[in-house]
Hints:
The complex is a heterodimer. Chain A is mostly beta strands. Helix content of chain A is about 10%, strand content about 40%. Chain A contains 1 helix and 13 strands; from the N terminus they run αβββββββββββββ. In chain A, the strands form 3 sheets. In chain A, strands 1, 2, 4, 5, 7, 8 and 9 form a 7-stranded mixed beta sheet that branches. In chain A, strands 3-13-10 form a 3-stranded mixed beta sheet, with no helix packed on it. Chain A has a 3-stranded antiparallel beta sheet with strand order 6-11-12, with no helix packed on it. Chain A starts with a helix and ends with a strand. By secondary structure, chain B is mainly beta. In chain B, about 10% of the residues lie in helices and about 55% in strands. Chain B has helices at about 1-20, 95-105, and strands spanning about 30-45, 60-75, 80-90, 110, 130-140, 140-145, 150-160, 165-170, 175-185, 190-200, 205-225, 235-255. Chain B has an 8-stranded antiparallel barrel with strand order 1-2-3-5-7-10-11-12. In chain B, a hairpin with a 6-residue loop joins strand 11 (about 205-225) and strand 12 (about 235-255). Chains A and B meet through helix 1 and strand 8 of A and helix 1 and strand 8 of B.
Amino acid sequence: MSRFSKLFFCTFLSGLLLSCEGDYYIDYEWVSMDAIHGNNSNKWPEPSSDDSISADHYVLILQMETNELKREGRYLDQESPPSNVNGLDSLFIYSSKDFDSEHPANSNLTDLFVILNDTYYSTLPADGSEGYWINNHQSPRFYDDPNVTHIDLMLQQKPSLKDSFRFYVRMVLDDGTAFTDSTTSIALF
Amino acid sequence: MKYILSICYCFLTYISFGQNEPKKEKCQNCVLGLGITYGMSFTQKPSSQPFGLHIYPDQRIFYISSELEFGIILKKNTQIRLNYSSKKFRFDQETYDKKMQKEYSEFYFYNNEHYGIYEPTTDFTEKDFEAKNLMLKVQHTIKKTKYSVFPSLGIGIEKWKHKNYQYVLRKPSSNIFTTYEISSHFKPSLVLEPSVSISIPKYPIIQLELGISHSIARLNYDVKYKKSNENFSSTENIKFDKNMTGFYVTLVLRGELN
């Protein structure tokens, strides 16, 4: 191998090694939860203060306050997304009114919702039947908001009668910590 | 590009030094060539297809390919060569997204930029297309005092490989969305390729080749789709042909092995 070839090979290898290290490792936890209404009539769900929303595009948004515990490295990388050290264990959503014949007042409504992980390619049933791996790693907004600061729950079924509903949410984390909140009353049509 | 340059460097060294060494007569009248091609491929706009398949890939695409060829000189002015090239087509995600959004204007269109990176089922990790091409070329040599011209005609096969991809469509008035997953299986298609190369006597191994290629790509897609959070249950197979015409320019290092 000539001197030129050796030099070329070494330079290329050094460049390759330097370009492959330094991903962020972030640990965070949720410290509080607020339940609000959301409207999915635009491209992504947005918080809504309307008194009524069509049930076809109603979204229950859980706004999560986060506390970052550790951040190491230099670059955000979707292949190593932030880790929630105290993830979601179980979720309960209920209403004081009958939603339909299968969901009387105060029964769990999670089977009516789908969790949108900030992208339509990563959704989960809200009843936990496929676990609760809630993350932003495939989100188009990942680089602006890598920690999960909101959980969007898309309603998949209309109530049997047009009525006003107030949703109560209870969220239990892996260590037993529980957050509870309720929305304001909203007319679903 | 670094790999190609280093291969060219090695090849040039081999050809240059080889000419001064005593002849070993292992492969008399054999020709070896290496090339880098920059080309543009125009595809005839196919008729509208379901699932927006006529939009993928784009109608006009640039490519870079590396070529390797081995030839035998049959007569003084005629040689026959076997040429292998691997073309890489850059996928223009932005243009594709705009066209899909226009095609499905009553829906919101969501691309999946990460499909292929996180999905272990596909062997692509980049948003590129590939075409592998094997050609048999017959070349004639016309030598003038200041330059040489080498008209040639090639016939061969080309096999395409598209990245599998996904997209989602959702009506603005609904939380229900549909996910489409598209995979492709293409059979080799016939390619016809007339071209002409030129060189100057001072540097006979460096040749510039200009050519046109024409092929009919026989596209064969499987489309799976599902509603919201359900599992994929429906599949459709769509086949259609696409006429492709390309222009290219190749820088070739071509030398006799004896």
